[in-house]
Design a protein that fits this description.
Blueprint (H helix, E strand, L loop, with lengths): L1 H8 L1 E5 L18 E6 L15 E5 L7 E3 L16 H4 L16 E9 H5 L9 E2 L1 H8 L9 E5 L9 H5 L7 E2 L1 H9 L4 E4 L17 H10 L2 E4 L4 H5 L4 E6 L9 E3 L3 E5 L1
Parallel strand pairs: 5-7, 6-8, 7-9, 9-10
Antiparallel strand pairs: 1-13, 2-3, 4-10, 4-12, 5-11, 11-13
Helix pairs in contact: 4-6, 6-7
InterPro entries: KFase/CYL, KFase_sf
GO molecular function: arylformamidase activity
Protein name: Cyclase
């Protein structure tokens, strides 16, 4: 197989996810990540032979850490993607359509658009709106094909270890403006991702909670959104095109799923 031959020649793999651990940043609209040890090795020798085991309980929202949005995540005027009634769809405690289990695994071409590099800065300012023009200029001579995944770097993940700064409730957060979302949708991509908590730009003021790109991408074009990506190493290596690999958990009826996406390039 050609893929196996490529691997044998040598590839470099970039992990694009953040670690899942207690105390990590989470949007107030989600249950934060918590892990607790239920059984420790010192608790009990279950076999009487010296063999022990340990296990943990994990509780988390489905949009915590690096995650992908399912199509049931957003609605408008009572409807989900495809005109599905949003209230009927989730009767019974989980979504009957468009849940996380329907997100197909992705092995496709990826493109990184590094907006701080374009602007000559290390990190975008709080509330900076990434426009269609920014994305086009960052793309340059590179072509986006139908079915690609486009990842957008703001540099905001540099603040990830400071929850208040990363969430930006008192400052705003850079992100994609509506014109940028429409431009991405016009390319027919499979998914779009960013290194922020909400993908959309967050500007202080009356429109702070509005997420137009979520509507443009998820609701009207069935394009998945990936959030809280770590794109720093990929950017430092000046990688712009790569093989993108992602698979979500089969969380039946969930509105999103934790993921561990990878970018693969020739070594």
């Amino acid at each position: 197989m050609e893929i196996l031959k490529a691997v044998q020649k040598g590839v470099k793999v970039f992990g694009l996810s953040v670690p899942l651990q207690n105390g990590m940043a989470a949007s107030p609209s989600n249950v934060p990540y918590n892990m607790a040890m239920l059984r420790r090795h010192a608790d009990r020798d279950r076999t009487g032979t010296g063999g022990t085991s340990a296990n943990a309980m994990i509780v988390t929202g489905d949009h915590v850490g690096t995650h992908i949005d399912a199509l049931c995540h957003v609605g408008y005027k009572g409807q989900l993607y495809g005109g599905v009634d949003s209230n009927d769809a989730c009767l019974g405690g989980r979504f009957k359509v468009h849940g996380a289990e329907t997100i197909e695994p992705m092995v496709t071409r990826g493109v990184l658009l590094d907006i701080p590099k374009l602007k000559g800065v290390d990190r975008l300012e709080p509330g900076y709106p990434i426009t269609k023009e920014d994305l086009e200029e960052s793309l340059g001579d590179t072509v986006i094909n139908k079915g690609d995944v486009v990842l957008i770097r703001t540099g905001w993940i540099q603040l990830y270890d400071d929850n208040a700064a990363f969430l930006g409730h008192s400052t705003g957060v850079p992100g994609v403006a509506e014109s940028g979302g429409e431009w991405l949708a016009s390319k027919g991509i499979k998914a779009a991702g960013a290194d922020t908590i909400a993908f959309d730009v967050e500007q202080l003021g009356p429109n702070y909670r509005q997420r137009p790109c979520h509507g443009v991408l998820l609701l009207f074009n069935a394009i998945h959104i990936i959030e809280v990506l770590d794109l720093e190493e990929l950017a430092k290596a000046n990688v712009k095109e790569f093989v993108f690999v992602l698979s979500s958990l089969k969380l039946v009826g969930a509105t999103g799923s934790p993921v561990r996406p990878l970018a693969i390039v020739d070594a």
